[in-house]
Amino acid sequence: MFDFLKYAPSNKKNGFDLTFETKTEKIKDEKTDISLSADIDVNYTNACSILHADINGDIVVRRFNWNFNNDSVKGFIICADGLSDSDSINEYILMPVMKNKYTSDKTPDNDDLIKYFAENVMPQIQITYETSLNKMTDFVNIGNVMLVIDGCTCGIIIDVKSWEHRGVDSPVNEDV
Question: What's the pLDDT tens digit per position in 121-141?
């Protein structure tokens, strides 16, 4: 706590003086930047830890398997319930990933796999590549979806923001 005002009793019998102290105490509020790992389990654990998914009911975590070249590639998405459009997530992210089988003549490298995924699987307009797990979780907090695939050190941020809205009505309690 900052003690910028400190009571200093005076020598006078019926008075007091306030003295100001300046402390050069710095509060370190910066989080250490965590980069995405090639291990999906490490990314899952770190992302859930940053977003406190175990105690935060608004954070939705969904694991999935992606069928690519007859192999099952693990992945997960994280979104904030109420800030993201769940219909768009189901229809344009999870459905294409889980229902279809994808094949490629050449097997892309791990970092190219996420680009293949974004270019061939995702029918979303606004996507962003990100390597920082902290930045990805910040995007989740404003309504985007983060998508991470096993073996990739880069993830995708997908814009599916949705805010509840309603028209302006007459107040029910204040009818005249």
Answer: 777 778 889 999 999 999 999
What is the C-alpha separation between 114 and 151, in angstroms, rounded?
9
Q: Which two tokens stand for residue 164?
A: 């509840």
pTM given for the model: 0.70
DSSP per-residue letters across 78-95:
EEEBTTB-HHHHIIIIIH
Contact 135, 176 (CB under 8 A): no
* Residue 96 · residue 64 · CB < 8 Å: no
Residues 77-132 pLDDT 10s: 999 988 888 888 888 888 888 777 767 776 666 667 788 778 877 777 788 899 99
Alpha carbon dihedral 53, 54, 55, 60, in 10-degree steps, equals 40
Q: What distance in Å separates the CA atoms of residue 76 and residue 42, rounded to the nearest whole number?
A: 12
Rounded CA-CA distance 128/172 in Å is 44
